[in-house]
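Risk register update: the risk of archive-format incompatibility is retired. Evidence:
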Amino acid sequence: MGFFDRFGKKAGKREGGHGNHWAAIFETEDETFSAISDSVNKKELIDQRRQIDGGIVVYDSVGGRMKILTITVDNQIWTSYPYLVNGISYDVEIESVEEWSNGLEGQIQGGLGEAAISFFDTGYLEGKKTYQDEQRYRFSLSALAYTLEVVEHEEAKEGEIGIAKGFAGFFPAGPEGDIGDFTFSSAVKEVVDFDFWGKKFFRIKASLFTMSEIGEDGEVDIYVYVPHRAIQGSKPRIGDDVFGAIWMQGHLE
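Archived output:
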């Protein structure tokens, strides 16, 4: 549950929040609130301002690979979250759409090939009228890391089954996680360093699983955005196997 949960709620709908997402980036709530406030009040930090309906306005902050996306209602901040600009695009068949209690945000549950996938829709407010169940839409998918560590696979002992180097897989985080939270294991294909709001980040490219219908190697890759404070141990390099906890998000292409 995040600290934006207190804003307008609709009965019968789940109460989402972004406290844990911001906590992956900023050390304190004061630091988070300061960044969000600046992103809508300082003209030089606003990239786009879009009027939706009535008093609803969406603000995109400046930023190359990441931005702060904030939604206001009647000039009051109702929600704000990290927006990962660059993802990798896939066709997702929507099984269900879950709108949050504030009526401004939602999550997608669907199928990517034979795999089930769920993610927070960063453009839900502007795209929700488009969605129909059992229809395919092209989404740009990416993830923010809560934690990430380089792993060394030991040789399996006699009679045991070991984990192969380069093994790729992702798994629901369990009852304590949200439907967009996963753990994953993969090999690093790419590492790009960048800064976001004064914080050091890097973005890795890694495979979640394989699916023959998408291309030659069949690997379903995504970009994972990693705050330096999320690293447990050494920073990964190309070819390293990693394990981590991530928050999946996507937006319509």
